[in-house]
Write a structure and sequence with these properties.
Largest sheet: 6 strands, antiparallel, barrel
Structural class: mainly beta
Number of strands: 8
Strand content: 35-45%
Strand order of the largest sheet: 2-3-4-7-6-5
């Protein structure tokens, strides 16, 4: 039996999702791409689950459906997975996974919002790194069903 780790939990895909999700808690920042230069536009959040196709995260602010976001997700150990990061930085501070996403769904949750976004733009080396990252985290976590 696989054991559960603090990194996350695999969510069985019994719905119509094309990509299995991994539950994990990671800090992130989200910024609307249409007003990205405005520093007041930066919103902090927390990742709930992540897949090759998108992300679900909690944020203090709501985003209109269809909003394009620049997402910077701080994944534990990300430097080891991303071939685009210089090996010199691999032991230092973690660089975020940077992707563009489109808001598909939001719902009120407590004092904030639960936001679902699909990835619409990702660098090839981030894509390769994310595949490995998610594969490793699925392999080391308990399968929920």
């Amino acid at each position: 039996m696989l054991s559960q780790s603090d990194q996350g939990t695999y969510l069985a895909s019994d719905d119509r999702r094309r990509h299995p999700r991994v539950c994990l808690k990671s800090d992130l920042s989200a910024r609307r791409k249409d007003i990205w230069m405005d520093t007041r536009n930066l919103v902090s959040g927390s990742c709930c689950n992540l897949s090759m196709g998108g992300i679900q995260f909690e944020a203090e602010e709501d985003f209109p459906l269809g909003t394009l976001l620049e997402l910077n997700i701080l994944l534990d150990g990300w430097n080891r997975y991303n071939p685009g990061i210089n090996a010199i930085w691999a032991e230092g501070d973690c660089e975020p996974l940077s992707v563009a996403g489109e808001v598909l769904r939001t719902e009120k949750k407590g004092g904030g919002y639960l936001v679902a976004a699909r990835f619409v733009e990702m660098q090839p080396y981030d894509f390769i790194g994310l595949q490995s990252y998610l594969m490793d985290h699925r392999a080391t976590t308990e399968i929920a069903g």
